[in-house]
Amino acid sequence: MQTLKDQIQGIVQTVFNEQFPQSETQIQVEYCDLAFGHFATNAALMSAKTLGLKPTDIANTLATELTKRAEFSSVEVQQPGFVNLRLQNAVLEENVRSLYEDPLGATKNIGKDQRMIIDYSHPNIGKPMGVHHLLSTIIGDSIKLIYRASGYEVIADNFIGDMGTQFGKLIHAVKTWGDMDAIEKDPITELLKLYVHFHIEAETDTALDDAGRAEYKKLEEGDPENRALLEKIQKWSMAEIASLYDQLGIEFDYFNGESFYEDKMQAIIDLGKSKGIFVESQGALVCKLSNPDEPPAIIQKSDGTSLYLTRDLARIAYWDKTWQPSYMVNVVDVAQSLQFRQLFEVSDKLGLTVADNIHVPFGRMQFSDGGMSTRKGNIILVQEVLAEVRRRANEQVESVAKNLNTQEQAELVEILAINAVKYTILRQNRVSNLTFDWDNLLSLEGNSAPYLAYSLVRMQAIHRDSELLETSELLVDEKLDDAEIVLLLELTKLADAIQGSITHFQPSDIANYCYELCRMYNGFYHTHKILEDQQTKSSRVLINSATLRVVQTCFALLGLRQPNKM
Asked: Is residue 412 part of a domain?
């Protein structure tokens, strides 16, 4: 199914080719200011040089022929050679009806027969999830939802951080300072305290780092005591992580953490050695890369222990062997860009996969007190953020939703709180740094989750009250005013927003489209009597209901919950 824009572009291309068969110009059609029309094309300007004709002559010829098409109510030429197109109401009717029946119709087969594996969130065990994990978790989950809705088979595999030297340090801290009774009662809080304590002590006792590395080497070599302790840490951590994902409405297909690939790394090392790609350097195993200004990729440390890169290579090989995907997507912050450049080049040298390996970077979460570090313990926890958002949402609901009963208020608080966190992240270009702004988070005005939710509830109420039948019709000869036409044209842009978000891994395209659509709808709502005027009721109810379907689709793609009352 084509979008309205694609349909119009196809018509103009056909007519242009008929009139100027000698030209190979690829026609572009864009939405334009309503004062000039609904769409415009600069085909005459683009083709004038190759055709050897004046742009106005080409435009006039094109306009004359397009006027004969039943789709257009008017076609006008504008200097220096634009052709402005205004559609018949019947065309708008057909498209709004299609959107009402199937908002995803134009995009739901984009990824047909293509498989994508995506990794996002990837928290570290032994630590509570910090707010910096929210970016990867929420952006990655929306990307998954968008691709699935567009016809891709998407497998979400959470690459949990459960290996590395930091676990040797944590194990040393538990053995040296830990109280197992206290840890058993509140494992994640106590483990974080111990991890922080280790790094504070290590600032004055340099031998501690060596002790941590020794414990990790024992872990990789299969030491029973260290293995048993790591398994306990994994169990404790996954229980807390699962609780947070449940609160956020986040789901994964697999949780194949770093330790899952422990028995798969040697095959990667052997392959690199056999191909002469991995070489020894000062006792370590490295892979030299094409950029001489960047350091070589370290595959194995001089003490024989593995690194994140080694496990990542094993992950790529496993993904390829198990699922044969078209795309392997990693939603990881921009600070890891060098790591992924190295990873992808080494993977290519080894021939691990023919899939497109993609790093989807994002900016950092900014706070007024500077950066965050688990080593110093001044991390802001996801649970703390959610608790504060819930508190603020509860104050808001108590003041503006007094008509709801206690249970309805509690449900609305949860919806507004989680949506506010998600939407604050998703509405922004992912590569920009994000400043968490409490004042704007729950605003009922402007580009915010509560504003979208309030708009959706308004649409739902009218939809329920209208008793709309799917056979209701927009009258072809009915006069639509500018506010209605602008809203109808905006509805047709959903497919463009989805396509943009797919191409650029950018959920903000959909988030900001949804806000703009709600803004236009609210302007329409405040100036039009939707249910009262019998002459316009059928048309306006259908516009309302189509807008509702599109907004609901945006909510689903962004992972937002839909309230029923506010």
From this structure: yes
CATH, residue 227: 3.40.50.620
Whether residues 426 and 328 share a domain: the answer is no
Judge if pTM exceeds 0.90.
Answer: yes
Residues 388 and 362 both lie in one domain:
no
Residue 65 CA: distances (Å) to CA of 69, 285, 507? 7, 69, 40
Residue 346 one-letter amino acid: V
Structural domain harbouring 29: 4-87
d(CA 357, CA 118): 10
Question: How distant, in Å, are the alpha carbons of 45, 177, 215 from that of 145?
Answer: 40, 44, 41
pLDDT tens string 105-130: 999 999 999 999 999 999 998 888 98
CA neighbours closer than 13 Å in the CB half-sphere of residue 350: 26
Query: Could you tell me the CATH number of the domain that includes residue 482?
Result: 1.10.730.10
Q: How far is CA 18 from CA 12, 69, 158, 422, in A?
A: 10, 14, 53, 50
In the numeric block, the tokens 């595959």 are attached to 299
Residue 510's closest CA among 552, 548, 478, 459? Answer: 552
Cα distance between residue 455 and residue 134, in whole Å: 26
